[in-house]
Amino acid sequence: MNRFKEVFREDSGYKAFFISLLTMGLGYGIYKGVLDNYLSEIVQMGELDRGFAEFFRELPGLFLVFILAALYMLSAENIYKLGSVIMLIGMGLHAIVSPTRVLVTLAICVYSLGEHIQLGMKNTLCLEYSKPGYGGRALGLQNGWYHIGTLAGYAVIIVAFLFVSGRGSFVSFFWVATALVALGTLSSFRLKGSSAVSDESRRRFYFRKKYTKYYMLEVFYGARKQVFFTFGPYVLIRFYGAGTSVISLLFAVTSIASFLLAPTVGKLIDRIGYKTVMIADTLILVIVCFFYGFAHHIFPMNVAFVVCCVNYVLDSVISMASMASNVYVQDLADSQAEVRATISTGISVNHLITVFIALFGGWVWQTLGIETLFILSAVLGLCNSAYAATIKVPGKQRT
């Protein structure tokens, strides 16, 4: 806990916040560990169907800025609590609805609404609770702590699905995830609100010219992220035949790597500068995309599967560099309220492209193949690096 005391203000609510993150992460690990296989095996969603489901899952993110505008009278802490409650409802729906594409997509959308409302507040609260000059470290701890929870959830699924199968097993674990989200919701209610209700920036779409580069970076990042988030596991399931335990094991390895390396990424952002990190991570992405799309042309299928798994983990690690854009915002902002409003707008800008990538990606895979899909992701990554290179860094940040 000494590391937390070094990074966070003692008078903040960081303890309850991190307990909530841990519990929510555990519930999400169980949920995510079974979801993709559930959609493929039980709901019978194909590549294009998966794209449609993801389109609706991302809609709350697209409209997040307007949702938060409607909640402008609430503090950041209370908005975080509201997100927890909606997540709880969405998770419960997964356990009770019939496995039809429409109803399951509805459940995914409700859970996503709560998740995105929380997403708009997680980084905000973390930065508000941190001490000056520790923004990158604070975000690194947040990511690492959340991944501890998700790792534990994946571990449960890895073991369980070695012995069970069928729709009943999936539903049982949706109920377990619901109970864990309920505990996380209770913990979130220990957070005390501190945001000023008169903050005008939260009443409208908060756009400022000085954040133009940040908004564009969110567009590029959102597009390339969506390809891997939606179709990365689905490629392994439908193209290589990976089962639920295997997918959960992959997610677990990813969580371990993220947990171990998230603090290091945070330190790198603070020490070498967010601009350098932004450029480097998407250059590495080009290599990742190449092997993910073309491994089966180079190696035997069993070897190609392993190569893709390794590259999936690597993509998850380098995607943590997206924390750098939040530190960039903090560097430009005049107040923490402005940081909160800008990050929330950035999430909506991010989703402006992801909703279309979800639909377009499913069509590309179905008609042109996975090779074209990941070439597209690599090109978007290169655009992100090129644009990040144009950032003018203030004197207090080193490149």
Order of helices and strands: HHHHHHHHHHHHHHH
The CATH architecture is Up-down Bundle
Tell me the name of the CATH homologous superfamily. Answer: MFS general substrate transporter like domains
The DSSP helix count reads 15
First and last CA, distance = 31 Å
Oligomer: single chain
Tally of separate domains: 1
Rg over alpha carbons = 20 Å
Which structural category fits the helices and strands?
A: mainly alpha
Level-1 CATH class name: Mainly Alpha
Structural shape: globular
What does this structure look like?
With 399 residues, the protein is mostly helical. The chain has a single domain (13-191, 204-388), classed as Growth Hormone, Chain: A. 80% of the residues lie in helices and 0% in strands. The chain has 15 helices and no strands. The chain has helices spanning 2-7, 14-42, 47-62, 64-70, 76-96, 101-129, 135-160, 167-188, 212-239, 244-272, 274-298, 301-318, 323-332, 336-368, 370-388. The longest helix is centred in the C-terminal third of the chain and has 33 residues, at 336-368. The chain is globular, with a radius of gyration of 20 Å. The two termini are 31 Å apart. Residues 195-203 have low confidence and may be disordered.
Short description:
This protein is mainly α and 399 residues long. It has helices at 2-7, 14-42, 47-62, 64-70, 76-96, 101-129, 135-160, 167-188, 212-239, 244-272, 274-298, 301-318, 323-332, 336-368, 370-388.
